[in-house]
Structures are given as C-alpha cells and as structure tokens.
Amino acid sequence: MVKTEEVEDAYKVAKERYAEIGVDTEAVMKQLGKVKLSVHCWQGDDIHGFLFPGQELTGGIGVSGNYPGIARTPDELSGDLSEALSLIPGSHKVQMHAIYAVTDKKKDLDEIEPEDFSYWVDWAKKEKIGLDMNGTFFSHPKVKENFTLASPDKDIRDFWIEHGKKTRAIANYFGKELGQQSVNNLWIPDGFKDNPIDKATPRLRLIDSLDEIDKKQYDEKNTIEAFEGKLFGTGIESYTVGSHLFYNNYALTRNKLWTIDAGHWHPTEDVSDKFSAFLPFGKGLMLHVSRPVRWDSDHVVIFDEALVRIARSLVRDNELSKTNIGLDFFDATINRVAAWVIGARATQKALLQGMLEPIEQLKKAELNYDFTTRLVETEELKSYPFGAVWDEFCLRNDVPVGNDWLDSIHQYEKDVQFKRN
Ligand code: RNT
Ligand code: ZN
Questions:
Q1: Any idea which ligand is nearest the CA of 296?
Q2: Is 264 a catalytic residue?
Q3: Among 359, 355, 389, which Cα is nearest to 377's?
Q4: pLDDT of residue 276
C-alpha cells in the first residue's frame, strides 16, 4: 500500500518545482477535477448488449479474448461500471448504446423508448452521473450488405431512420432526467469491400436519412447529436460512405458535433491537429479516445505519445469546454473493469500533464520566435514530477494511489466476477 505521508511529501516538493516555473498545481487539480470523461459501457460485455442475446458482432469491428468475468446482465454490467468508477478520480459520465435497453418485452431497435432505459437512468442517479447515447447501427439482420442509413433499399433505410429517431428521444430523456446534456453519437458501418462505381449517391442518401432523423427539435440543454466518421472497417476497406470529410461538413452545416475517434485514421495521422482546424467553425467535438495498433484495433488506451498529444492540444488551445471526451475501446484479454480504469486514468494523467505547463510563457516564447526556449522547456517538462501531483489528485479524490487499485480489482474478481460462469 502506498503511504499517505509519502504521497503528501512528494507532492510538496512537486508543488514547489512547478511553482518555480509559474505553474499552480492547486489550480491545475481543480481544473482536472472538472473534466468529465464519458466512459463507454460496451467494454464491460464485449459489445453484446441485452436486446439480442447471442447476436454476432458485425460492422467491421471486433473484440478478441475471453478473460473470465464478462458482465451478462444489466445488474452485472452496472455493478462493474460502479466498481470502475470508484477507482477513477472525479465525477464522470457513461456512454450507453441502444442495444443496452433493459426491457421484458421483445423489442426491435425501431421500437425502443425512453422507458427502456429507466434502469440506466435510475442507476446514473444513484451514481450522480450523466449519460451519453449511441445508436446501434450494426449487429443486426437489417444491416444489408453492410448498409444501413445509406442503403439503396427504402425499407432498410426507413428502419434505421426510425432507430435514429428513437435514440434521440432516449438521449433527450437522459438529459432531462439527469440535468446534463446527453451527446447522441451516430456511427454507421456503411461501405463497400471493393471499389464502388457510384460514390456519390450513397452519400446523398445518407444526407437525406440524417436530415430526416434530425427533423424534430429537441432542447439542446438536454441533447445534441454527434457524427462519427471513419476511414475503413474490416470487410469494408474500399469505400466508407460516412467518411471524415463527409461528417465534418455535415456537422458544420447542421451546427452539430463532429466525433473524432482516435482509431479511425491513417496510423501516421495526428488527430490532435484536427481540433483547432474544426473548432473555429464548428459547434464542438465529441472524442472517442481509442488506441489503434497498426489498424483500428481499439486497444485499451494507455499513456502514450498519441494520447498526450490529444490532451495537450485540448489544454493548450483552450478546447476543453467545447469537447466531450468519450472513451472507445474493447479488449477481452484482460479484466474488463481494469480496462476501463486503465484507459480513464491514462486519459486523466495525459490531461494533467498537459495542464502542468507554463502555457502562456511557452506561447510568448513562440511568438518571439524563440524556438530554442520552446524546445528546451517542453523537453525538460517531460521529467517534471507530474506523477506526484497525480498521486495527490487520487488521494484527494479518495481513490487508490499508484498500483493500489489493482488490489481492488483482484478482490472484485474473487468476490464477484469469477463467481460468474
Ligand atoms: C466503430 C466506432 C464506434 C464503435 C462503438 C461500439 O468503429 O468507433 O464508435 O466503436 O459504437
Ligand atoms: Zn468510436
């Protein structure tokens, strides 16, 4: 167990070191405490949901691994989420997906209503958190040849349009009940494995479908839509209807949010460079913080350079207030509760490191063409004692410091997860 006095002593030293360069660690911890992450429910059960037991995962995404203890029921999933949230400092949100509706009736995706999510709203009230929403446009027989909203078949499009409308009513209910705006994210798999002849018409159909879904007005205090594009999916390599440029333009012209999933780009692209190119024109961003390894593999987010860049850009460019930071990864080779905690804590650490910089000073150096100072200071900052501030932040937020949270996971496995079979 990490000793409290040691954490406090180390923090005192770190506070001094940062004060010397004009960084107020107390103010930074306050700032970090205000950043809500939107933790994705689907890491807990490998994106199965509860509406269609046994349904195969489709849409060109995939989960691998079979670590014991997967959540199989709403109570198991909400229990696991509560356990994860208890190990993540601060107060956050949870992202739902349509397939997580909890109902005794046999309902399809075009029939779900707000009441089918009352289970989650009651749970969120207990946890004192907000909920975000995602439509589920995959893992369903009405996905025809990988097409949904852009399908050439009117009946297929109509089914998914109705689904989209239902998700908006549900997100509106989340916002109303929980008193926090619920972001309703839309991602569809539509696209072709091989080279299409007509790239234009599917996109025009998608525009019509989206406009139809969004016809009804909802109070933005309660909900707003976000649109997530992508480069490709497995089996959908040659053409994606909802590409990045498509949704960038759609979000801009409809005054909605654009979702940037960190795994949806060419591996050498720096997604953090896109925020400041979109935000001067757009309403805001939703992020799906993820980790691609060679492809859109959705590995658990770790404290790596790509994550640090994302966090630094948000902080340095003052974009936190216009950005919803959601997580999106799924790994079944490790404890699923630990996966949430690893990804969330890594994201917070990256934000903290980004905040522990003399940003105004660095901006001044840059304005004065003093690139030597810029490089020296940013390099030296990397070995400043930010870990001591992180530990203090955990201590003050009443969550385990350092590796100590692994003991909680082992205990939870023994008491709860490994008893499931
Ligand atoms: C797929 C998208 C999408 C999904 C979730 C489960 O590539 O990233 O966000 O991961 O809807
Ligand atoms: Zn995503």
A1: 1
A2: yes
A3: 359
A4: 98
Dump pLDDT digits (tens) for 19-35. Answer: 999 999 999 999 999 99
Domain boundaries along the sequence of the chain: 36-358
- pLDDT tens, position by position, 258-268: 999 999 999 89
Measured in Å, residue 61 CA sits from the centre of ligand 1 at 7
Distance between CA atoms of residues 150 and 205, nearest Å: 5
190 is catalytic: no
- For the question of residue 261 being annotated catalytic, the response is yes
Angstrom distances, CA of residue 172 to CA of 123, 168, 219, 225, 278: 17, 6, 8, 10, 26
For ligand 1, mutation pick of 58, 187, 258, 287 (most atoms within 8 Å of CB): 187
Ligand 1 pocket, residues with Cβ under 6 angstroms: 42, 47, 61, 134, 187, 228, 230, 261, 288, 328
Angle formed by the axes of helices 336-355 and 405-415, to 10°?
A: 160
Tokens of 278: 């979109």
Nearest CA to ligand 1 atom 8: 261
Which pair of structure tokens corresponds to residue 314?
Answer: 């948000």
C-alpha neighbours within 13 Å on the C-beta side of residue 385: 19
Atom of ligand 1 nearest to the CA of 97: 11
Q: What 3-state class would DSSP assign to 349?
A: helix
Which is catalytic among the residues 15, 244, 288, 349? 288
Ligand 1, atom 9: closest residue by C-alpha: 187
Across 103-209, the runs of DSSP E, i.e. the strands, are 130-134, 182-186, 191-192
pLDDT at residue 421, rounded to an integer = 74
Cβ-Cβ contacts under 8 Å for 130 (sequence gap 6 or more):
36, 93, 94, 124, 174, 175, 178, 179, 180, 181, 182
Q: Which two tokens stand for residue 143?
A: 């996905």
In this prediction, residues 176-187 reach a mean pLDDT of: 98
What predicted TM-score, i.e. pTM, was given to this entire model? Answer: 0.98
**Dihedral angle computed from the Cα positions of residues 402, 406, 407 and 408, in that order, rounded to the nearest 10 degrees:** 100
Paired residues of 233 in beta bridges: 236
CATH class held by domain 36-358: alpha beta
* CA 377 to each of CA 314, 366, 382: distance values in angstroms, whole numbers, following the listed order: 19, 12, 9
CA-based nearest residue to 418, from 144, 80, 91:
80
